Amino acid sequence: MKRSVMLIDLDRCIGCLSCEVACKQEKGIENFGIRPMKVHRVGGIGEDADAFFLPMNCFHCDPAPCVYACPTFAMRKREDHIVYVEELRCIGCKACIIACPYGAIAFNPNTKKVEKCDYCYKRLERGLLPSCVSKCVTNCLYFVEMEERPKEKHIAKRIDSLLYKELFNWASKDKFLKV
């Protein structure tokens, strides 16, 4: 089975949060603090400050630490490598939250369960894109199928190098907040 990944064009993201809103609507999340798709502002304070935006969601790791940490097997991985929560099995113990190196999992105090990005796999099964991708106003989010693992690593390295370059450029402009 093919594996799909989310690619993000950081040059196009304007921090509008349409991906966050679409994600929350798709999942029916009403709690303000729970954000399976998060957009982080990196740098600058104020209107004229130099900053860029970094959309982040679950990386669907391989292997996925959250899957191994879950004592009830509620955190699952599909054949296509999408990591999701089987809600009926989740007891809200938060072991997956502790295991996730990216902070991609959140506890929902309303449901007493965890929430995370699952690439809207139910939409994928109907031939639709993840909600965040379909609602992105600048088209900076891409959801693509990868045929071979080496290509993924190449893309991951490219994304890492772009992020590093962006962070380095921002830091070299002496934009750090001085206290």
Strand order of the largest sheet: 1-8
pLDDT averaged over residues: 83
Largest sheet, strands/sense/barrel: 2 strands, antiparallel
Q: Which spans have pLDDT < 50 for at least 5 consecutive residues?
A: 148-152, 170-179
Number of DSSP E strands? 8
Instruction: Assign the CATH class of the largest domain.
Output: Alpha Beta
Q: Which CATH architecture of the largest domain?
A: 2-Layer Sandwich
Distance between the termini: 52 Å
CATH topology of the largest domain, by name, is Alpha-Beta Plaits
Tally of contiguous helical segments: 6
Class based on secondary structure composition and strand pairing: alpha+beta
Radius of gyration: 17 Å
Q: Would you list the SSEs in sequence order as H and E? A: EHEEHEEHEEHHEH
Give the number of domains.
Answer: 2
Which of globular, elongated, flat, extended, rod-shaped describes the shape?
globular
The portion of residues forming beta strands comes to 15-25%
Please estimate the helix content: 25-40%
